[in-house]
Specification:
The protein is mostly beta strands. A hairpin with a 7-residue loop joins strand 1 and strand 2. An 8-stranded antiparallel sheet has the order 5-4-7-8-1-2-3-6, with no helix packed on it. Helix content is 6%, strand content 31%. The protein contains 1 helix and 8 strands, in the order αββββββββ. 16% of the residues are buried. It is globular and about 65 Å long. The N terminus is likely disordered.
Length: 185
Amino acid sequence: MRLSVNRSIFGRSGGLTFLGVGPWLLLGVTLAVGPHVPATGSGGSKYPDEFPLFPTMGNEGASGMAYLRQPWSPFGVSVDEYGRVEYDFRVSVRDLPRSEGDVYRVWLTTPTLELIVDLGAIEPTGELTGTTAWHQLVVVVSREPADRIVTEGERWSGPIVLRGFSAGARVIPLATHSIFQPTPM
């Protein structure tokens, strides 16, 4: 027995269809999907992951943006010498309050604050670039004494002025939510 499918471009009622789908359904799907707009972030940035840095209380005039992207590689993904994926990181800040004897430092950390890395000092209105192996990160801008020497493994000691979370850091496993944790009896 041989099965064959014959579809006419005309529907049962004689109306025009395409593979059994009427023109109104095709029009509805086309309008719902809309035109393709590349996801380049606001302002047409070349950084696919950009996120704002929010001021803390008392620093409402300050603002900033952080940008995270994978650098170009002939292999598709750029990795460091240990095989970890590398990301280019850039942070720009504006209108940080001026303070004599203090500098602003940019710190990168994991969402759990396990590892903290000092990227360096930044001007009250300026930019700082670097690389990181983290896509789940928190950016902290703090005000530190100008004569402080930061060694590896140290964290900020001054007040936090700006902070922000990458898109990856905003996603947490649901199993770690407090409603799924056992309660003490």
